[in-house]
Structure formats: C-alpha cells, structure tokens
Amino acid sequence: MSIEKKLADLGVTLPDAPAPAANYVPFVKSGNMVYVSGQISMDANGPIKGKLGDGMDVEAGAAAAKTCAIALLAQLKAACDGDIDRLVRVVKLTGFVNSTGDFTDQPKVINGASDFLVEALGDAGRHARSAVSAASLPLGVAVEIEGIFEIR
User: Endoribonuclease L-PSP/chorismate mutase-like domain spans which residues (predicted)?
Assistant: First the structure.
C-alpha cells in the first residue's frame, strides 16, 4: 500500500511543504539521506502555541507533535520530487518541547509524532529519537521536530 493511501486511511492529507521562515533550506539531501529542518507545530488555524507544564497538557502537546510529523513527511515528499514512496525508513527525530523547568514528560509529548509515524509507516516509521526541553520556541509554538530519513 502506498504511503499516501495509508495516510488517507488515517484521515491525513499531506499539505504543501511549508516554506522556510529564515535563512535556511527546508531539507538537505546527501546520498540516500534526507535531513529535514525543524518543523513547528501548526494546524489549519496557524501555529499551535503553548508551554507544557503551564497551561498545556501532555495530550495537547502530543497532538501538536503529530502536526510536526505531518509537516516532516510533507517536506520529505518535496525532497523526493513528489514520490514519498521512495522512503526507506525514518532514521532519527529530535523533538524540542516548549516547557517549564520542572516539566519532565517531554518523551510523552514527542510520542505524538513517533506513534503517528509508526502507525502510518509500520516498521519503516520506527526510529532513534531525542526529546528535550526548550525554554521557548519560535513563535511561541509548543513543539518543533527535525528529522533524518533514508530514501531510495
């Protein structure tokens, strides 16, 4: 089954890949690897803002992380000239969580992205990962995630 068909079965349509917001490129291809710049939590209404541990709960943070994973796949599709089925596997995610100093559930927040990628991609979605706290993130968003992918 194609990746986009599986995503559609999950109710997800990949958006156009977001344009970079500063002086960087959205992805870099090197050999069979694609390095995707950090994607911030956004939905149809714009940036998903919040601070975990101060008014935003883990479930809302995980939902925000899922939007980052969708944006990562959109960038990957662009890197693959529109053919996301070139994906071999998700290699690594680094997730940044806008959180208070005493918040310790960053892994549970980033699980929103990890769980979605495994659900959508099966074993190809299993990856190495870091989940870290940040005092603040661009535009006040709740989550930012970067990714490394292997393609054919």
Answer: 5-140
